[in-house]
Write a structure and sequence with these properties.
254 residues; alpha+beta; two-stranded antiparallel sheet; 55% helix; elongated
Length: 254
């Protein structure tokens, strides 16, 4: 048996307790393998419990650990760091709870807050920093910790209540489709629920649309007065939140 074959059999045993893999590793290896597998899985369980404490509180210990077992079976670690193992867990929950979308949304929020906290540093701009900007050609640069995901439910309210050890609200579907954004400012991770229009605006700006083009698009959709007011409100909110870290100039005028 080559070293590569040995490593593959060891991985098969860790993932699913393969009898064939165990037999190739040697008849006397079974007791040690079981100890190793137990330690391996215990580390993964501990990683997910720590990363998704409020999700665990929401669905309960038995349901959470059943989901963890299913996740470990379907998604073996693939990174050099155990910190990365939690990234696919919301997708597992989405698969296991198709009729309870708040479960996966709650897990995504916990994951995003954790990743924002350890994300790259960036200094937020203030209103004074952009006083002389030419908004017709300005291209906004968002903080690198900005993340967002579509949201069907008020999972953010559930997370807040659970964190405060208060009684969480009943599951509520959002009146209209929207999203939740997560970012870090200074040393604190933040989140905010947004509507579908702001979600689209952030996606377009992050893809390179100038602020002038965004204003023009919003005017086309809502009329001149409402469109300009809406674009200005978004800009003011993004500055207040600390989402904007740089302003470049587009070569294409709106």
């Amino acid at each position: 048996m080559t070293l590569l074959e040995l490593q593959r059999d060891m991985r098969r045993w860790l993932n699913d307790g393969s009898d064939d893999a165990a037999a190739r590793l040697g008849a006397g290896a079974a007791p040690g393998l079981r100890v190793y597998q137990n330690n391996y899985r215990a580390q993964l369980v501990a990683c997910l419990e720590e990363s998704f404490a409020q999700t665990l509180a929401w669905i309960g210990g038995a349901a959470f650990h059943a989901a963890v077992v299913r996740h470990i079976e379907r998604v073996p670690p693939s990174s050099w760091t155990l910190d990365a193992y939690s990234r696919d867990f919301p997708a597992t929950l989405r698969m296991l709870y198709p009729d309870d979308p708040e479960v996966a949304e709650l897990a995504w929020l916990e994951l995003a807050l954790g990743e924002a906290f350890v994300g790259a540093d960036a200094v937020a701009m203030t209103a004074a920093d952009v006083a002389d900007v030419d908004w017709d050609t300005a291209e906004l640069r968002f903080t690198p910790t900005l993340d967002m995901a579509a949201a069907e439910t008020e999972a953010a309210a559930i997370w807040t209540a659970l964190l405060q050890q208060a009684s969480p609200p009943a599951v509520m579907m959002r009146d209209e489709p929207g999203a939740v954004i997560v970012w870090r400012r200074d040393m604190m991770a933040h989140f905010r629920a947004i509507d579908a229009r702001e979600h689209c605006a952030i996606l377009l700006v992050r893809a390179g649309m100038s602020f002038g083009a965004l204003c023009a698009m919003t005017v086309d959709e809502r009329g001149e007065a409402d469109g300009i007011a809406q674009a200005g409100a978004w800009l003011g909110q993004w500055l207040a939140d600390g989402l904007i870290v740089a302003v470049g100039e587009s070569s294409v005028r709106s």
